[in-house]
Amino acid sequence: MAGYIAKRLLAAIPVLFGLTIIVFLIMAMIPGDPATAILGSYATPENVAKLNKDLGLDKTLVEQYLIWIGNLFEGDLGRSYTLNRPVLDEVLERFSATLILAGTALVLCSILGLIAGIISAVRQYGWADKAITLLVLIGISTPSFWLGLLLILVFAVNLKLFPVSGMYAIYGGGDLPDLLHHLALPAFTLSVVATGVIARLTRTAMLEVLRQDYIRTARAKGLSERKVIYKHAFKSALVSIIPVIGIQAGFVIGGAVYIETVFQWPGIGSMLVKAISTRDLLLVQGGVLVVAAAYVLFNLLADVVQTLLDPRLR
Amino acid sequence: MAETTLSAPAKPAPNSNRPGTAALLLNNTLATSGLAVLLAICLIALAAPILPLPDPDVTAPANRLLPVFSEGHLLGTDHLGRDLLSRLIWGTRVSLAVGLSATAIAAFFGSLLGLVAGYAGGRTDAVIMRGIDMVMAFPYILLALAIVAVLGPGLLNALYAIALVNIPFFARNIRGITLGLSRREFVDAARLSGKSPVQILFLEILPNVLPVIVITMSTTIGWMILETAGLSFLGLGAQPPQADLGSMLGEGRKILFTAPHVSIIPGLMIFALVMSINLFGDGVRDILDPRLRAGSLTRPVSRTAVERDCTSVPQPSSEDGVLDVRGMRTEFQIGSSVYKAVGGVDLHLKQGECLGIVGESGSGKSVTAMSIMGLVPTPPGRISGGAAYLEGEDLFAASNRRIKDLRGGTVAYVFQDPLSTLHPLFTVGDQLKEAISTHQPLSGKALTDKAVELLTLVRIPNAKERLSAYPHELSGGMRQRVCIAMALANDAKVLIADEPTTALDVTVQSQVLTLMNGLRREKNTAVLFITHDFGVVSALCDRVAVMYAGKIVETGTTEDVLSNPRHPYTAKLIDCVPVLGQPERRVDAIEGRPPVVNNLPDGCAFAARCPRARAACRRGEIELEMTTGDSGVRCLFPLGKGEDA
Asked: CA angle at residue B118 from B112 to B120, to 5 degrees?
């Protein structure tokens, strides 16, 4: 088992390297001359040449990448020119806020999705199944940024149950209850689509498993229907659902971009949107890299959990 | 399409009663309403230039933020006094155009990559797929953001970004299908006829891949509209004065508290659009995806449904049997046709006796075995008549709870393929212990000891260590021994074994048979043994019943039936068994196939394959004529002693 995990970790290394190459290339493909962009159109050719040399842009792409990755290993992702602080500091600070939001949403969508999917499968064609199927369809068709606005209108502005935006209250906040109070609306909004996807998949997976021969064996043994469904069938279904939850993590982190903007959550998504409109490309680069790396690691985790569940994969 | 032309004559309209694709779609209310809404939205969006709408971009500061249903402005106006209805319709036009273009671009390039990778295989495939994997390693929206960051904000750039990040979905799906198709005969045929790879790819493979492309498109187009709207909402897509639904929503957000309708209305439109596409897309997928079309994903309930006429339930025969099955009928309802898998079967089983049920596949012998304890999946199965008495108790009238207690306790099963009948994710020890503890109040060490004892009983070496093994870690014979141990766990009175040795190789087969035979004599268990092999019957069974097309056609003691078969079908079945030391003996397969049980002929079901059939054989119902005691034959012209069929 430990050997398997080590093997998976090793296999993730080339993927992570690939990510750095893609992120580097994306930034290298930016049209126009960065030096001119930084110095403005009135810069003299000498100044442009000097800055290009300082930025290392007169070197070949491969040399530039090696320098860049060398700096990366030292924790240097450059400096954000709009914020005038190291990119890494800003990115890590923002990323922890995103992790809180996306992590909560992921837990929420896994639990809700699994429960809804199982009910739907067990009560196939019953009213509960129909209701869940319809809700799921509505959930995955609703623009999350719009749903966020509606929830703010209803629960924050009209009912005053939750704060309108932010992560902590400005005065007297900062503790866990305050965080949860601020987290409720955005985390729920973020989890809706993923809940729908997981519920759909759980339903299909359960229906598929319930037709297997070993379920008939479980019934022939005289097990209660509860045990047949929640022990025998669910465990098998979970094996095929875990990777989907891994993939949903990517959608949840991506969807956080909208939700953070709507709820003014100080996460990496709202940072990226701002960085893109101010063309703070080093910040974009750092943000994308960190989030993508986290996503790869999360999928690795999903793989490991799946292997723990299924002895045949070991 | 060579495939369809080749196979068409072989199957003369087998699905003539299946409605066509369009009819199926129209039958699906949700899909139809989705399509209707979608068409309505598209029509209005297309007609925008000829509709009597005010200019969507003309500002009128005096009329700013008018509420819904204002005079002249049905949906009110925004913060610049622009008419919302007009902006909504023109914005929908933009959003639809962008979503469709993005889907088309992603589908085109993705399918192309998938086709090439799947057909070329080898290194080309590896390179393309590694690249695709790399792109998929990014969270989807993040990659789109990075691309917009590079290209700069703008509607066209947002379109490219969304199209690009969706290419992998198409490439992966299409590659998988292409890979499968490129190994098929019709592609080989095209290759041999001298067609170029490009011709094969586009003329032979593409038409077959098209449904998958359509499914993938119908499931992703909603997403793409959502995501492009999202980018515009963030201010990274459509730039003013140009507006799509997303950017309208983004602008409205700034005045959410004072004029919520400005953001609610475009959001509602996105929702209606995406919802209708998803409804329609699901309908299309259900129809094009053959797995769902067959209705195979229906959940079987815990017990076979019993729908019998309660006024004519047969009484148990007076004998002192443990199990007594009278006139049992089991049907499968598939679509509009009813398959009568078991058409009135009588069986009785005394304590310690072994009855073999023999027949070809499709004869209904397994369904007979499963019906007794209600293990036939419902839907589509149901028990439509007769009764099964276990020590005088009518099983078909028993409560679900009672059946659950009897299953594994008084009546135990051993199934055919031990790899698929054991749960792959639990150790054999856990599964065995579960079988014990369901019916006996054992736990902890006593439970483990009992499990070890059972494994030792079925001659599994190192029983204690084997408890922690998973099914896939054992050989086929060992797995079947585990299944037998599970069946013996609670000293069942009746053991129903459904082809328990068929999936095993011959030497293991005989070991398992010897084991079962020894154990049943030791424990005095009644055994119902289902098999297609007369060799196995002769080794194990006291009596035998031969089944054909859901009915017993001959029954008697094993010795009698084997030495003097009276039904021509029995004789032919016996002839199928090779005999050791008689290499000159002809082993004949029976010509023809058993009839399909949804359309049984009148008279004897075997008449079509029977060399002795006469006109009388094809008329009316032929009864099982009981001769001496337990012997009987369902034949008008049975074979005499020593006569060949």
From this structure: 95
At A80 the three-state DSSP class reads strand
> Which architecture, in CATH terms, is B70-83+97-266?
Orthogonal Bundle (1.10)
Taking CB atoms and an 8 Å limit, are B409 and A222 in contact across chains? yes
State how far the Cα of A266 lies from the Cα of B452, in Å rounded to an integer: 59
Chain B residue with Cα closest to A217: B421
Which residues 6+ apart lie within 8 Å of A187 measured at CB?
A: A101, A104, A105, A108
* ipTM for this model: 0.88
> Rounded to whole angstroms, how far apart are CA atoms B565 and B542?
15
Closest chain A residue to the Cα of B276, Cα to Cα: A141
Average per-residue pLDDT in chain A?
Answer: 86
- CA dist., res. B14 & res. A310, Å (int): 41
Contacts of A15 in chain B (CB under 8 A): 133-134, 137
**b/e for A18-52, b at 16 or more Cβ within 10 A?**
bbbebbbebbeeeeeebbbeeeeeebeeeebeebb
List the domain boundaries for chain A: 1-87, 88-313
CATH 1.10.3720.10, chain B: domain bounds: 70-83+97-266
How is domain A88-313 classified at the CATH fold level?
MetI-like fold (1.10.3720)
Mean pLDDT for each consecutive 10-residue tract of chain B (645 residues)? 33 44 70 91 90 81 78 79 88 92 94 90 86 83 85 89 91 88 83 85 86 85 90 89 88 86 91 92 76 61 81 73 86 82 86 88 86 85 86 85 88 85 91 90 87 86 88 87 87 87 78 83 88 84 88 86 85 74 63 76 80 78 76 80 67
Taking the model in full, what pTM does it have?
A: 0.85
pLDDT tens per residue, range A250-293: 889 888 999 999 999 999 999 998 888 887 888 888 898 888 88
pLDDT of residue A100: 93
Interface contact A221-B267, CB threshold 8 A = no
**Chain A CA closest to residue B413:** A220
> What are the backbone dihedrals phi and psi of residue A126, each rounded to the nearest 5 degrees, phi first?
-80, 180
pLDDT value of position B37: 93
- The reply to whether residue A153 touches residue B413, judged by beta carbons under 8 angstroms, is no
Q: Indicate yes or no: CB of B233 within 8 angstroms of CB of A140.
A: no
The reported pLDDT for the residue numbered A173 is 67
Is the Cβ–Cβ distance between B303 and A228 less than 8 Å? no
**At a CB cut-off of 8 Å and minimum separation 6, what does B561 contact?**
B544, B546, B554, B555, B570
Q: Quick one: tokens of B490? A: 């609670």
What angle (nearest 5°) sits at the alpha carbon of residue B293, between those of residues B290 and B294? 90
Residue B152, judged by CB atoms within 10 A of its CB (0-12, 13-18, 19+), counts as: middle
Q: In chain B, what residues touch A249 (CB-CB under 8 Å)?
A: 139
Question: Any CB–CB contact under 8 A between B108 and chain A?
Answer: no
Identify the DSSP state of A229. I
Say whether B388 sits in a helix, a strand or coil: strand
Q: Is A233 on the interface with B (CB under 8 A)?
A: no
DSSP state of A296: H
Cα distance between residue B251 and residue B246, in whole Å:
9
Distances (CA, A) of A300 to A23, B459, B534: 20, 42, 53
Residues of A whose CB is below 8 A from B415: 213, 216-217, 220
